[in-house]
Write a structure and sequence with these properties.
Shape: globular
CATH class: Alpha Beta
Oligomer: single chain
Number of helices: 5
Strand content: 5-15%
Order of helices and strands: EHHEHEHEH
Helix content: 25-40%
Number of domains: 1
């Protein structure tokens, strides 16, 4: 054991596991979501939007646990469904995505690292999300494109 103050000049950042994160997921009311697909899907638009949000939320809950997820929505179907699963619910202020994210961030607090994940990632899986969160822990801020 070295007592030299320079024995380990570069220390690694503290290990942050995926379950340590709080993930804020803003989801637009499914009746208004996926507006660019309205022509293609017609009356199935709300169902499609809801299914996409469900898949995103399911993967997120699997990755970090329900207590670590903050759902920001005004959707009358999604809200009670996911609140019953233990997800923290925040009402959508109705003034756009930035304000929805800010509301979720306030609920998340300051104790844990916070990620914001848009609610329209139907191909998201828990393993990929866990990996992204664990890698993001090494930096102060980051983003990942969904393409």
């Amino acid at each position: 054991m070295s007592t030299s103050p320079n024995a380990h000049p570069e220390s690694a950042p503290p290990l942050v596991l995926s379950g340590d994160w709080v993930v804020v997921v803003p989801v637009k009311d499914t009746r208004h979501g996926k507006s660019r697909l309205a022509r293609a899907v017609g009356s199935d638009r709300a169902a499609l939007s809801g299914a996409i949000a469900h898949d995103t939320l399911a993967a997120t809950v699997e990755a970090v646990g329900a207590r670590q997820v903050v759902l920001v929505t005004g959707d009358e179907v999604l809200a009670p469904t996911w609140a019953a699963k233990g997800v923290t619910l925040v009402g959508d202020p109705g003034t756009g995505l930035n304000d929805a994210v800010a509301s979720g961030m306030r609920q998340a607090g300051r104790g844990a690292p916070v990620a914001v994940l848009l609610g329209d990632l139907p191909a998201l899986d828990a393993v990929s999300l866990r990996t992204a969160l664990e890698r993001a822990a090494a930096v102060a801020e980051s983003f990942v494109p969904d393409a």
